Amino acid sequence: MVQTDWDGRYYHIDQILDTPGPRTDEGFMAGNGVKDFLRNQSKILVIGAGGLGCEILANLALTGFKDIHVIDMDTIDISNLNRQFLFRPKDVGKSKAIVAAEFIMNRVPGVKVTPYFGKIQDKDDEYYLQFNLVICGLDSVEARRWINATLVNLVDPENPESLKPLIDGGTEGFKGQARVILPTITSCYECSLEMLNKPTAFPICTIANTPRLPEHCIEWASVLEWPRVHGDKKLDTDNPDDISWTYNVAAARAKEFNIEGVTWSLTQGVVKNIIPAIASTNAIIAASCCNEAFKIATSSAAYLNNYFMLIGTESIYSYTFEHEKKANCPVCGGDSLPLNINPDTTLEELIEMLTERQDMQSNQESIIVNCFKAVISASSAATGGSDQT
Amino acid sequence: MNDSQPLETATTSIQAPSGAPDAKTRRYDRQLRLWAASGQTALESARLLVIPASATATSILKNLVLPGLGHFTLMDDKEVTGADAGNNFFLDGMKSIGKSRAEEGVQGLLELNDGVEGVADVRDIKRVLKSDPEWLKTFDVVVAHNLDSSILDDLADLLWPGTHLVVVNSAGFLAEFSIHFREHQIIESHSETAASLRIDKAFPALLDYAMSLPLDTMDITDHAHIPYPVILVRALEEWRRECEQVNGPSSGQGAPSNAAEKKAFKERIRAMVRKFDEENFEEAESQAYKCWSTTGIPSEVRELFSFYSSSASSSSAFSALVSALSQFAENNSASPLYTSGLLPLTSTLPDMKSSTDEYVKLQQMYRAQAEAEKKVFKEYLGRGQVSVDDASVDSFLKNAHALKVLKGKEWKMINPGSKELLATKLTIQPRESATHLALVAVRSLRAKGVLSPLEVHSDTTKDAPMADALDKDKLKEFLTAEARDFLPPGAELPEEEWNVASGEIARAPSADIPTTAAFLGGLVAQEIIKMITKQYVPISAGNAASSGDDQLGVCVVDLVETWTGVI
User: Fold this and answer.
1) Nearest Cβ partner for A82 among B27, B460, B504
2) Who has the most CB within 10 Å: B60, B95, B117, B189?
3) Quick check: B89 and A107 CB within 8 A?
4) What is the number of domains present in chain A?
5) Is residue A230 situated within a structural domain?
6) Any idea where the THIF-type NAD/FAD binding fold domain is (chain B) (predicted)?
């Protein structure tokens, strides 16, 4: 093996690893024990190689994690280059995970980054069980819910190793949040879903009959006119020609209704649901995520309990608090919600009922998983094999 | 998306008229939606000096190079050590060892954006302070990370107040930074508070329109499309007229004030409903509070009127605009019913339940009134000596309700801060203040030679660094003695918070760890962007117009419990 740890390489981080601090757990193995675990034994998964992911990978590599895996299904777009600093103009169109992994391995010797260019759903429980920690830098609520539910379901009370801490970050403009989730122990992603801002949804009748805002005209063009004119061909939000078509149709409608403000940029923003993103906010949140990963992996200091929220628009406001576990959380909660169904209800009808329940906020996929569990539990209850409800 | 730009203004000025944006606009799309073309232009013309090429300093620069800063100079006279190569992502690992830190760092940073100019300066800042002080003043912002006290003191004196000095200090999991400016004016504060719709002080066209609608006889579909401001203005005016019959003339003032009156007012709105599903009336009921939130001049803006009337710097465009605004607030001839106590009307309406025609009609009423009031404003502005372009006037009026003028402090006022203020701060924000004192104390120990200068530490080729020879408990004792000196006699350090802060420093006095460096890199870059673009609100020592002196304007960070705080 090539010697990559030159003299002084870990001078800075070793000040932390050689001595306990005032807020360090007694179990901390200062010195070689903890260094060996961090650098030679721990294995960490990064989900997302975008705005947060690029930052997370760089921080983890410098902090001393040497076996890093990264998953991302996206390819590089020119609009990523204002913040996703492992990518260059020549990389546009390539896999984010692969380019990011190569960059890190070239820059930080001795670090192995294993990329996977695909979906998190492609991987099974066994895959996720191999990691000590998972860090998410995602822009999708659905992907977060999936990995959260997967890691909660992975927990086997008999096997402490099956509990994989999940560190999740997210940003929007000058704001962001980082949190530590210990599946089944602390509040999980699903517990806090109601904290999310509801996405702006315009009623279809407003779009069709009483447009007032430029956004209403754009929605009309993309949601109603596009399928009417193009039939089965889907609007490709990454194709400038499709955006231009939508823009022209929206602009014509806006003119007809005396509405001002339809621009190409707004059209793209509405159609793609673009969220503003800058390097600095991603840096803060990614650093916070990696700092928690480092503290958890090394026990060198207390870690975040359990939610850090930052608002940088007006001075620097941040709020660190313990988000409470929801007793009736559909993913990690022990409580059950009453639901009256008659014996003739089909599974399909049940799923529909559950999807419509506001307090569940479930998507079809997670319901199917949970229904499946319910069916199993009901059948084992019928045979007297379980006391769960 | 509350902090984002109204998108229609975000990119229009630098996009091709045919529609699709050019490559540069596409590259910067996600940030232009925050600070628009005007912010981008400001960023692209800014010049920054950063000293030295530490992990923290290059992390800050990275977050400014990516969005397209104009120019940076990275100043560092040292060579890359093994420690630098290990914690700085913008050096090229082992290959950089022994080469110039500044040159290697600039190379790594310039890869990120070929639209940015970056220069390495391998001189020692101590010498430059003597040989080339005027050149240092040509920068807009100077960032100093973990510099020795003696250099900082001279640098701060030299740069005040023309160039903003950003002082960043970190050790292990703890850090703090401050920005030095005398006064910082912000027009586009991106406040989340919307300007008033003036429901309680309706302008004549709106009032006349609201009163003219035959609510009981008009077409039922039209009735369900009346925008809520019109409903509220009508309901409030009817309420006022009924009150006048009892109490005499109210000259267009007055609104439900107690819980019972407010409840009755909401019932009045409900009674106006003609069909069960009139969502516009439901919306009016939920917005009824707008009738009793009095439209006036926000106190922060009012404070600026007297601040600028007494301030000597009345030759700037900003003070001319504020002066015109204060005259407008005294006498708005475009608003015959309410001639004083109002800011100019803005024509931005939120979305509301309504038909297209009714919404556009309302929008046009607001726009016409806003134009008339702008004319009055521009008359006042024209009487002054300073000419201001129309785009600036429009931006000023659109944001007049959320103007901000901040004050900052000079370095010597916050290093460490006055004894009395620190003693007060320790009782109000103990953990933040204790962390600040611990970071000041360690710098002070270096200046006194109790701890060796930072560069000695990271050079592992030399003899054992002094800090390593110094026992952690001994260092804590020194820090405590140092911190006590910053406090008035009798003032106590908060035991728990001080134990934590001094213990963290003693554990890692010279550690620039990658996660803290990256965290600070983002935090400080955000603040520099806010300063340069003059958009959004940076940290400060408070409002310039308020007389209070209870803030240092220092942002403190603890990455064990993961919190930030401004003291």
Assistant:
1) B27
2) B60
3) yes
4) 3
5) yes
6) 28-143
Q: If you measure CA to CA, which chain A residue comes closest to B67?
A: A82
Most confident of A126-130, A336-340, A361-365, B313-317: A126-130
A residues 90-129 closer than 8 Å to B (CB): 107-109
Task: Provide the pLDDT for residue B250.
Answer: 73
Provide the shortest C-alpha distance from residue A324 to chain B (in Å): 17
The pLDDT, as a whole number, for residue B471 is 83
Q: How confident is the model at residue A335 (pLDDT cuts 50, 70, 90)?
A: low
- Structural domain includes residue A73: yes
Chain A, 254-273: which have a CB under 8 Å from a chain B CB? Answer: 257-266, 268-269
Q: Which candidate from B33, B111, B515 shows the least CB-CB separation from A294?
A: B515
In this structure, what CATH number is given to the domain that contains residue A252? 1.10.10.520
Domain parsing of chain B, residue ranges: 7-184, 204-292, 299-405
CA distance B29 to chain A (A): 6
Mean pLDDT of A9-18: 95
Cα radius of gyration rounded to whole Å, chain A: 24
Distance (Å, whole) CA A214 – CA B116: 35
Find which of B562, B563, B566, B567 to mutate to test the A interface (most A CBs within 10 Å of its CB).
B562
Residue A331 inside a domain? The answer is: no
Residue span of the structural domain in which A236 resides: 204-272
**Burial letters B187-220, b for 16+ CB under 10 A, else e:** bbbbbeeebbbbbbbbbeebbebbeeeeeeeeee
Testing the interface with B: which of A313, A321, A322, A323 to mutate, by most B Cβ within 10 A?
A313
How far CA B82 is from CA of A106, B85, B93, B243, in Å, comes to: 17, 5, 9, 81
Contact at CB, A313 and B536, closer than 8 angstroms = yes
Residue-level pLDDT at A342: 75
Q: Which of B44, B480, B526, B530 to mutate to test the interface with A (most CBs of A within 10 A)?
A: B526
Mean pLDDT for A266-285 is 96
Residue A357: predicted pLDDT? 60
Which pLDDT score, from 0 to 100, does residue B2 have?
43
Same structural domain for residues A191 and A299?
yes
- Kindly give the parts of chain B with pLDDT less than 50: 1-17, 461-468
Q: Could you tell me the CATH superfamily of domain B7-184?
A: NAD(P)-binding Rossmann-like Domain (3.40.50.720)
ipTM of the complex: 0.93
**pLDDT 10s digits, A115-148:** 999 999 999 999 999 999 999 999 899 999 999 9
* SS3 labels along chain A: CCCCCCCCCCHHHHHHHCCCCCCCCCCCCCCHHHHHHHHHHCCEEEECCCHHHHHHHHHHHHHCCCEEEEECCCECCHHHCCCCCCCCHHHCCCEHHHHHHHHHHHHCCCCEEEEECCCHHHCCHHHHHCCCEEEEECCCHHHHHHHHHHHHHHCECCEHHHCCCEEEEEEECCEEEEEEECCCCCCCCHHHHHHCCCCCCCCHHHHHCCCCCHHHHHHHHHHHHHHHHHCCCCCCCCCHHHHHHHHHHHHHHHHHCCCCCCCHHHHHHHHHCCCCCCHHHHHHHHHHHHHHHHHHHHCCCCCCCCEEEEECCECCEEEEECCCCCCCCCCCCCCCCCCCCCCCCCHHHHHHHHHHCCCCCCCHHHHHHHHHHHHHHHHHHHCCCCCCC
Same domain, A37 and A110: yes
Q: What is the pTM of this model?
A: 0.91
- A160 Cβ under 8 Å from any chain B Cβ: no
CA distance B518 to chain A (A): 6
Average pLDDT, chain A: 89
